[in-house]
């Protein structure tokens, strides 16, 4: 009798374990879906190598409108701007932006995601630099 009830307890426990695993599986599937909707950088954005690759890309693609090191030109300055967050930068660089008659094209068609993240890393690194207005004083 004692043997039987412990056997039953055991099978109840393993059933609870089974549902526990299924439940945990559901949670991690939900976490994976949630991750997809918010952009996540594929590498460390403070890595000097990544920032440097972003700087090279910026000099080729962005300097024409945003000036040397983002100091401003046709478009406003993007250096020394602590209001620009990682998510905002990724979304804005990907989709482009319009300010009156000035238009920044969509970059997601011509640059792949890792390249856009390198640009984000570079622009973030420019936050530490003084804003161009501050330089002239
Ligand atoms: C054809 C000109 C042009 C080019 C090239 C260009 N931009 Fe822009 N960019 C603009 C304009 C215009 C705006 C919107 C005006 C503004 O926000 O100052 C803008 C806005 C931005 C903003 C948002 C600034 C804010 O205050 O919201 C970021 C960040 C940015 N550009 C990054 C880039 C990066 C990185 C590249 C290179 C891949 C690039 N831009 C290339 C014209 C350009």
Description:
The protein is mainly alpha-helical and 137 residues long. It has two domains: 1-37; 48-132, Orthogonal Bundle (Cytochrome Bc1 Complex, Chain D, domain 2), CATH 1.10.760.10. Helix content is 60%, strand content 4%. It has six helices and two strands; from the N terminus they run ααααββαα. The protein has helices at residues 2-37, 48-61, 63-66, 86-95, 113-125, 132-136; strands at residues 97-99, 102-104. A hairpin with a 2-residue loop joins strand 1 and strand 2 (102-104). The mean pLDDT is 81. Bound molecules: heme C. Heme C binds at residues 58, 61-62, 64-66, 74-76, 78, 84, 89, 92-93, 97, 99, 102-104, 107, 119, 123. Keywords: Heme, Iron, Metal-binding. Residues 49-127 form the Cytochrome c domain. This is Cytochrome c domain-containing protein.
């Amino acid at each position: 009798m004692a043997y039987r009830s412990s056997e039953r307890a055991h099978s109840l426990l393993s059933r609870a374990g089974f549902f526990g695993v299924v439940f945990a599986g559901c949670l991690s599937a939900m976490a994976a879906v949630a991750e997809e909707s918010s952009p996540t950088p594929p590498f460390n954005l403070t890595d000097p190598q990544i920032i440097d690759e972003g700087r090279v890309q910026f000099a080729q693609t962005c300097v024409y409108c945003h000036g040397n090191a983002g100091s401003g030109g046709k478009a406003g300055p993007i250096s020394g701007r602590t209001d620009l967050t990682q998510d905002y930068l990724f979304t804005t660089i990907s989709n482009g932006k319009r300010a009156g008659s000035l238009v920044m094209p969509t970059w997601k068609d011509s640059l792949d995601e890792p390249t856009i993240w390198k640009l984000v890393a570079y622009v973030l690194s420019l936050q530490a630099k003084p804003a161009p207005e501050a330089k002239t004083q």
